[in-house]
Design brief:
single chain; Methane Monooxygenase Hydroxylase, Chain G, domain 1; rod-shaped; 316 residues; seven-stranded mixed beta sheet
């Protein structure tokens, strides 16, 4: 689907104009949105707008890293949205020219829809030009990152609250799941942060200077998101290490208990082994009280070793 939005010189909005009429002198700037276009519709990128073949190729093939490329009088942006459930990146491409922007995406984008509606409804926003519209798209995409990060922070808080009610294995599974989500977010947010840094410091696109503060604000949001991601990754790493340490300590306690029990029974097993040998001449076997004497000695050895280990603190 292709749709268009044109802003006239008297700041009025015209929608769904044919692409051929967007070059009228009465139109100050315009926005064309390609939403999951067919092959025939996508040809307008080449046949009508005459965009660079490499930029058109980036729109269709694979998931490109967020970037900004300059092609003659057109600046090409690769932006990333985040799917709210899977947290996977979804590409949104944008061409910004002298008096237009063109957005291209293969999936529905609520962020672009919101920016589109703002421009249609608010005259003050329309008067700021097409670079401000480009800012709105970027800002909406970045703002959509926050709920996903906040949701992960809520999950971490919930884990800390329920740490005594769940097994170590369940906690470790949750932590590794959260770390995987943070990694997916990081793969999107950090490249977007680098892209906005380039945009803010670009000297090639003079029109950006008029809206420098707005793009700087988006960059600040991405810096905040990056810090939140790294902070949460550090927190999950600390929680993971603490749980591993707790599990190791628990295993050490179990092994220490088993070692004490084994050590106590070693001399008893040795005595029992001696008197379990089948030799014909063992004088003690003929004594009347030998059985009870041996049991008493074994009991005394076991009790003595137990008291000695307890005094050493092996049972603490």
């Amino acid at each position: 689907m292709i749709r268009s939005l044109a802003v006239t010189t008297d700041n009025k909005v015209l929608t769904d104009l044919p692409l051929e009429k967007l070059s009228q002198t009465s139109i100050r700037w315009y926005w064309v949105d390609f939403n999951n276009p067919s092959e025939e519709e996508a040809r307008y990128l080449r046949d009508h707008f005459h965009f660079h073949p490499l930029a058109i190729e980036d729109c269709y093939y694979l998931l490109q890293r967020p970037k900004m490329d300059h092609y003659e009088n057109v600046t090409f942006f690769v932006l990333h949205a985040i799917h709210p459930k899977s947290l996977e990146a979804e590409e949104v491409d944008m061409f910004v020219g002298k008096n237009f922007i063109v957005t291209f995406h293969l999936k529905d984008s609520q962020e672009i829809e919101d920016a589109w509606c703002h421009i249609q409804q608010e005259e003050k926003i329309r008067s700021k030009g097409h670079f401000y519209a480009a800012y709105l798209v970027m800002d909406n995409l970045v703002d959509q990152y926050f709920p996903s990060v906040y949701q992960i922070e809520d999950q971490l808080d919930e884990i800390e609250d329920n740490v005594k009610n769940e097994s170590i294995q369940e906690l470790m599974d949750q932590i590794f799941d959260i770390r995987a989500k943070l990694l997916r977010l990081r793969r999107t947010i950090v490249p977007m942060r680098d892209l906005l840094y380039r945009v803010v410091n670009s000297e090639r696109v003079q029109e950006l200077k008029e809206h420098h503060l707005f793009f700087t604000d988006v960059h600040d949001h991405l810096l905040k998101l990056s810090e939140m991601i790294e902070s949460n990754r550090d927190m999950t790493a600390d929680m993971r290490d603490n749980y591993i340490s707790m599990n190791s300590n628990r295993m050490n306690t179990i092994m220490k208990t088993l070692t004490v029990i084994t050590t106590i029974f070693m001399p008893l097993t040795f005595i029992a082994g001696i008197y379990g040998m089948n030799f014909n001449y063992m004088p003690e076997l003929a004594w009347h009280w030998s059985y009870f004497i041996v049991l008493g000695v074994m009991f005394a050895i076991g009790l003595g070793m137990y008291m000695w280990f307890r005094k050493k603190g092996w049972f603490d």
